[in-house]
Design a protein that fits this description.
The complex is a heterodimer. Chain A is mostly helical. Chain A is built from 8 helices and no strands. The C terminus of chain A is likely disordered. Chain B is 34% helix and 33% strand. Classes of the chains: A mainly alpha, B alpha+beta. Chains A and B meet through helix 6 and helix 7 of A and helix 1, strand 8, strand 11, strand 19 and helix 8 of B. The structure holds protoporphyrin IX containing FE.
Amino acid sequence: MTDLQWGRVSNDAFNVALFSYVAAMVGYFAYLAFRRTSFWAIARTVASVGLFANVVCVVTRGFAAHRVPWGNMYEYSVLLALLVVAGYLLIVEGYYKIHTLGGFALMFSVFTMAIAVSFLYVGPGPLVPALNSYWIKIHVVAAISGSSLFALGGGVLTILFLVQDRRERRQVATLRAQEPPPIMGGSVDVDAPPDFAPDADEPTAGDVVRRGVLPTAATLDRMAYRVIAFAFPVWTFAVIAGAIWAQRAWGRYWGWDPKETWSFVTWVIYAGYLHARSTSGWKGRPAAVIALVGFVSLLITYYAVNLWIVGLHSYKGF
Amino acid sequence: MRTALILLLMLALASVAGSLVPQWPNSPERVVRFQLDHPLVGAFYGRAGLFDVFGSWWFVLITTLLFVSLVACLFPRTRALVRALRQRPVQAREIDSFRLYEERVVPADPARVIDGSRRVLRRRMFRVARDDDGRPALAAEKGALREVGSLLFHWAFLLIVVGVIYGKGTGFTGRAVVVEGKTWIDAQANYDGQLRTGRFFNGDFTGAGIHLRGFEDTYRRSGQPMDFVSHVDLLDAQGNVVKQTDIRVNDPASIDGIEFFQYGFGWAPVVEVRRGGEVISSEPITFVQDTAPEGVPQLAMPWHGILKLPFLDPEAGLTLELWPDSRAWLQLRTTGESVAMTGEFQPIMFFKVFRGDLTDTSPLSLDTSVMRQAGRGVVGAGQTVDLRTGEALAEGASSKGLTISFPELRQYSVLQVSRDRGVPMVLLAAILVLLGLLPALYTSRRKVWVRAEPNENGTVLKVGGFALQRKPQFDEEFSKLVDAMARAAGEVPAVEEKERVSSR
Ligand code: HEM
């Protein structure tokens, strides 16, 4: 096949992926609303089809451009969407066996891909020499993986936690008004299992507090922490790999260029988050606020710096 | 701890400011533009050091305080860790109050049960202590790696700061402009003012040299750059060629601890001026470009150079404008379209001659205020043109007056030169940061206590335990551990299986 054909295949696969993600997102939300397992089964299948198309989109893009398919903002975004969906299916559904969060993870990917195709699209083509390095491949893979994990943990799961936490508090308040308060309390520990099983798909009879379909706030809180704790070393590695690349390309491993600065800021915020949890014993809402601040910083690192702030990383050429 | 984190947050906030306000070291022209556009705010920013956040006194202050407070809290933590590692695990008073607690009846005497359990625990890398008073009891713990990793991470983070200060402080970065066929020596004067030195730099330039054999820039058909290569010889301080190599973007070369990075390039025509047929000036001149306006490719812009002839009377200066590809000039003239000049094609050079006093010593500018224009014209490659009349001389003819020609169109390469002795230290520290981070985040501390009490059927094995982190994972590990201890004490596996089934 010619480059042009590969490029066309990639674009078609992009459309299939985006369309599938939208459909799967709707399916997951329908599952959330009506709790019919068949909705979940369909949504997951469609999401998997979308994921496959997304992989095809990335791989054929690489064939079309004769290089690794992560050389510009459009390609980063497609890869980011891919990793968030893959991360969701593998970690949240595969490992935690929680099926209700798909709509939110897919929503993130849908937005990312929609922005990519509307504002960031460029045809497949070779890289400018500054990006043509072996370290950039390592750096970008790590940065994209770290970003997707932070987006999942600090963004999606944290927002869901805040929503669920608010709902539970309301319900507890209603309960309190009706009967004498239950004995509350417990030790502060990030990893402690909640007192009731985190089995999200089988609401136990009489579980008044947890009538909703989302996992409990405590479960979401713990999942967010786990995912962020996983993302942090990946991000650290990405920053280090970026510094190594900068050393080779520009003769300085660190120059406070806006991209570098903002990845450092994101790193510091999540280091603060980890400290707050492990040394100050914070959890729940205060910790979630830090995670959200980190997420905003991540978005700035990712979008604002590339699009509006001038720097070496703006990829405008040599 | 709290102080250090607040300082770290302040560092982050300062960095944010540094990414929003234009920074002098990164983009001086944007700082100047900002100051022109907002004179008042600009003056305030300048006073507050906001145009050079990362070099400002308050940034240095925050870093220093962070450093001090980190050291202050790392010492006690390290000492505590060393003490904890030396200490034997402590026996517990009551073990049946732990959330994880199991009893098994095993057919062996207590001493054997304890020996077996000890073996099981040690095989699983627990540190185990027997009871000091000889009672059949054990205390065991595991997971000091978490604290070790955490401390390694924090110390390594400090080492990064040290490496950065050492490397940047004793190092320098500058730019070397080398014309094809010329040699550049690492010495203060050769940086043309484009030099930034660290606070502790003591002027020890190496005297090493770099000879540019050739430069190549290649482009794709779309005009996108493909490769920039400087073919160079590296010379030591005695002038001996040490190495022949290429410098590309992303592929630097180094000698005597200084590194050369491909940074930029340009045209350097050899401009020859003759008087009465005799050469009076023949030098490659480095030409530069103006920044292209929005929408125009940078390479579509013409190149400008200056030639000064102070030995003439009156003195003379020439402003030169080079179009390395004359088709681009023609295109702009006829259709108004700007095309990038990615290579040499029938180059042409426009010139203006000024006579009078040369008041400006810079090689890159010509102050014509006290001079008068004394001619203009254009010269093509291979042509010779009269400076005053602007007329081309016939082939082989000579003129009594001044003539100009450019027999050769060379290129020059701009190399970023830097020396940073902290790089290996920072790299090592960064690797240690990662190595420390993994156990600090993913391992957990676990404690286990064992008792063996005789009863009529043999011995009751009592095991209690808890984990400081990762409790759900430990639940599973704990029951496997108890199984293994019971087996080591002679519990028959078949019975154990039956017991487990029936207990479900
Ligand atoms: C005075 C300064 C500091 C003190 C006393 C301190 C203390 C601690 C403590 C007690 C832990 C918990 C270790 C564990 O859970 O086993 C920790 C973890 C950590 N610290 Fe610090 N820290 C300091 C500064 C910093 C700085 C400046 C950074 C980063 C830039 C940082 C990053 C981390 C990280 C990433 C962890 C791992 C988080 C975790 O274990 O959950 N710390 N620190």
